[in-house]
Amino acid sequence: QYHKWNELGKRLNAYIITDKYVQFSFEIETGTKREGKKVVGIDTGINALASVSSGEQYGLEMNELIDRVKRCKYGSKGQNKARRALKQRVDEIAIEVIKTENPDLIVVEQLKNMGHKSKAKRLLAKNIRRSIGIWNWKYWLMRIEQQCELNRVSFRTVSPYYTSQTCPSCNHIDRKNRNGIEFKCQSCGHTDNADINAALNIMNRFILGKYGSQYKQENIRSFT
User: Which residues are registered as beta bridge partners of 178?
Assistant: First the structure.
């Protein structure tokens, strides 16, 4: 990895040394951002690490990888190995999303400052919270943002409020709209995978905002 980034760019003088790793910083010229108008919304979750507004899902095996971490003794070599495997899969998914979706702009939920009652923790069953920390979400968002930078893709965030409860067809908001992995609007009857539905709301929230109007015509999906 060091040689890869050293060939692509210039190593900066800043570096971090810990008991587990040495972190170097590189300055890489990636060129100007893409000028196309394809926007992709991504919802982050446990059932699928990345559910995309296009209807695709990536990382459907995350539960299995998390469970492997959970089964190992806390702090053991086996658990550290399982955590590395989980981390590697996150890296692969970040690359896969950019390569497959080929977006010009990616929008995700702003999951910063995640506290005890945050979305990320609510998505985790109590018995696996000890085995997988909030860092996995922060790490995932960092990796997808890095891939965006490397591939000249713009990266934006939006508020996460009610993205899982909102109908993209009629805008009705109701907690009952979502039932597990299924979404069914209590007002108009629109149905979808709940995570993909959330990804659509994430995309629409940016496009309908003051900074996303230029993308509206090409990306907003209509429902009948």
Answer: 183
